[in-house]
Amino acid sequence: MRIDIITVHPELIKSPFEFSIIKRAIDKGFVEVHFHDLRKFALNKYGKIDDYQFGGGAGMVLMVEPVDQCINDLMKDRNYDEVIYMTPDAKTLNQQTANTLSTAENIIILTGHYKGVDQRIRDKFITKEISIGDYVLSGGELAAAVLCDALIRLIPGVLGDETSALTDSFQDDLLAPPVYTRPSEYKGMIVPEVLLSGDFNKIDEWRYEKSMERTRKIRPDLIDKNE
Length: 227
Description:
Blueprint (H helix, E strand, L loop, with lengths): L1 E6 L2 H4 L6 H8 L4 E6 L12 E3 L7 E3 L1 H12 L6 E11 L2 H7 L4 E6 L7 H6 L3 E4 L9 H12 L32 E2 L2 E2 L9 H19 L1 H6 L2
């Protein structure tokens, strides 16, 4: 997989890709991540990439020309499965979307900034718009990092245990059950006996029951969606 991220602040987004699972995925060649500074396509020597919005109103808007030039420059070399725009006024990222995107070969991610991007870019290039929640950030860089983390970890071979991602919360529209590790007893707190039994059928039943219990308590909307 190749991910090209277009950003106003490449230095802001690079750090999450330099550690842990994502770094290992990059080092092992499972994914390539490239950062593209939008100011390299600025309209003048002062780095102009934004302007006031027509019709008045507060906030600057990313101009159409720099973004158009950047995306076209990338598209000269390869075809892209998706051109994604990170924006709060979009459908919220979920596990199913991450699953789908993890199978793509080439992706462009455009990070929003200021008041957003000229609508003509969204009309011409964007194939999918994604939000990470009902709130507004200073820019789309952190949101893009969240999206990348969610999908890169799903690429076969990235995680040491191939079944790990399949048992995460939301894979089956349920929250994950409680997990425990050694020691089995600590300050009077005891690991549920069933997890120590070695009976994997009973363990699976226990985990499912606990998943249902937690989901009904914390995210009943997930239960309602499937009933």
